[in-house]
Design brief:
Length: 366
């Protein structure tokens, strides 16, 4: 069979372009139309005509393929690419809700199997929709009559990542709410889940600077915020160190806002720090002071209330004030204000005031 330079047959090329009339002509002249519809491209993807039509959301092209007299529609819908991707997964990944509805509601569809099918990396249609921010696609999957929503939300890909983690990593707050507030959701377990390296949804949100996603996880009624904040990866990484990395990282949108949100919660919920917690706060301080953009972050000529409050809270929770040279001018000013029991200029957070009155002064001199 003749193929183009991408390894596609004429049927695949026309399906990708949504040219239904041309597809009819090709199928009418095919010696074996059933085999033609099941054929995969010879390129890197291994996609079929149905897959490329689903990826583009071409409904009429999909209907033509599924309802053709020679079609094995059930087999076509469950057929997977070289990487285990199906037509439903491609439609979900690209937010084509009507294409998804057509596949899931087709008379030949095994909708439950299609929704729980995973790729070679363990990704499901739900995960791909979450990863790419397609909230309506996710909603369709969760409310479908054949869906085992509770199981789908807890499914993890090969590295242990879940749909919630994919949404949190990309800051898709509406999708996170949809997952956490679903009647079948075990929200507490979803938020405490760790993937194979130890990442949690909170860490992923903080690491990527998603303030609203971080706040949602901390404030959700099912959240055990204190427990979430104490989760450590094997190397000691926590949500706090992740947020510190973002604050001093190379991103043009770097900000102390996620770190400040987390530190305020620690200050609100924690008991006076033990040695281990003080050591961790010192680690957070060091991450903040040694990032790629620490020089810009600790420019003493630049007013930054969020930065100042973060440092203030870290010191009050036992972080060492022995820091690299780049951070010393800012730290010296903040320690001087604390020593005088004065607020750091412009800070209005009551957590700082309460801790300044109840906790010991910083341990080391700058």
């Amino acid at each position: 069979m003749t193929t183009d330079k991408r390894g596609r047959s004429a049927l695949m090329a026309f399906a990708e372009a949504g040219q239904v009339k041309a597809m009819r002509v090709v199928l009418a002249h095919a010696v074996d139309p059933a085999a033609m519809m099941m054929l995969k491209d010879s390129g890197i993807h291994g996609w079929t005509a149905l897959m490329v039509a689903g990826q583009r959301g071409h409904l009429e092209a999909m209907r033509l393929l599924l309802d053709h007299p020679s079609a094995d529609a059930a087999a076509m819908m469950m057929q997977s690419s070289s990487s285990g991707i199906t037509a439903l997964m491609l439609s979900a990944a690209n937010g084509h809700v009507e294409a998804m509805r057509l596949l899931l509601n087709h008379p030949s569809a095994d909708a439950a199997a299609m929704m729980t099918h995973s790729s070679s990396t363990g990704h499901t249609a739900l995960m791909l929709a979450a990863q790419n921010g397609h909230v309506d696609a996710m909603r369709l999957l969760l409310v479908h009559p054949s869906a085992d929503a509770a199981a789908m939300m807890m499914l993890a890909q090969l590295k242990g990542g879940t749909a919630l983690m994919a949404a949190a990593c990309n800051g898709h707050v509406d999708m996170m709410r949809l997952l956490l507030d679903h009647p079948s959701a075990n929200a507490a377990a979803m938020m405490m889940h760790t993937e194979s390296s130890g990442w949690t949804a909170l860490m992923l949100a903080a690491c990527n600077g998603h303030v609203d996603a971080t706040r949602l996880l901390l404030d959700h009624p099912a959240a055990n915020a204190a427990a979430m904040l104490t989760v450590r990866m094997p190397a000691g990484t926590s949500a706090l160190t992740c947020a510190a990395q973002f604050a001093a990282g190379p991103s043009a949108t770097r900000s102390c806002a996620p770190l400040l949100l987390l530190l305020r919660r620690v200050a609100k919920e924690s008991q006076p720090s033990d040695d281990a917690e003080q050591a961790h706060m010192t680690t957070v301080m060091q991450v903040l002071c040694t990032g790629p953009q620490s020089g810009a972050l600790f420019d003493n000529n630049q007013a930054d209330d969020a930065r100042d409050e973060c440092i203030c809270l870290l010191l009050l929770m036992g972080a060492s004030s022995i820091v690299p040279e780049v951070a010393r001018p800012v730290l010296s000013r903040i320690i001087r204000d604390l020593t005088q029991l004065a607020r750091v200029p412009h800070l209005i957070n009551e957590a700082v005031v309460g801790m300044a009155a109840s906790r010991k002064r910083p341990r080391d001199g700058a």
